[in-house]
Amino acid sequence: TFEIKEYHFHIYFFQNNSHQVKKAKELFEKVQVLVEKDHRFKVKPLRVNLSPVGPHPTGSYEVWCPIERWITLNRGELNVLIHPLTTQAYVDHTTRSAFLGERSPIDVEGMFGYEEDEISSQYPKLKLGYAAEN
């Protein structure tokens, strides 16, 4: 067995709904500010996807943060896919995943059977999660 040390939070919104796009961008900006001001948030979201990308069925963006509580309290009406980061992307996005809000179907066909040899940290320079010194 292994210890899960990193998670992704995928913020979902209906990209053709201007109200939801506005709410998603507001939450995105809140996270950007927290990275600058709060030691618990280390990574700025890279981009807002205004159309489906990869397995995600709607507009979305990814947040790497150690604090589920913050997302739970601040997501508003937006749905959030939470999944661990391990060597098994398919299992991480299916049986090991959870949703805050409504569950959305995701297209994981491209992940089926894909497995990495070892777990690696997404942001090793931060020395958090899998890159943390024991």
Summarize the structure in words.
With 134 residues, the chain is an alpha+beta fold. The protein has helices at residues 18-37, 68-74, 89-93, and strands at 7-13, 59-63, 79-84, 98-100. It has a 4-stranded antiparallel beta sheet. It is globular and about 45 Å long.
Please give the largest β-sheet: 4 strands, antiparallel
How many individual domains?
A: 1
- The residue fraction in helices comes out at 10-25%
How would you state the average pLDDT, rounded? 86
- Named CATH topology: Alpha-Beta Plaits
CATH homologous group name:
DOPA-like domains
Radius of gyration: 15 Å
Strand pairing plus helix content: what structural class? alpha+beta
Q: Say how many strands there are.
A: 4
Secondary-structure element pattern, one letter each: EHEHEHE
Q: Strand-residue fraction?
A: 15-25%
Total of helices: 3
> Largest beta sheet: what is the strand line-up?
2-1-3-4
CATH class: Alpha Beta
Q: What's the architecture in CATH terms?
A: 2-Layer Sandwich
Low-confidence stretches: none
In whole angstroms, the N-to-C terminal distance is 18 Å
Global geometry: globular
InterPro entries: DOPA-like_sf, DOPA_dioxygen
Protein name: DOPA 4,5-dioxygenase
Pfam families: DOPA_dioxygen
Organism: Clydaea vesicula
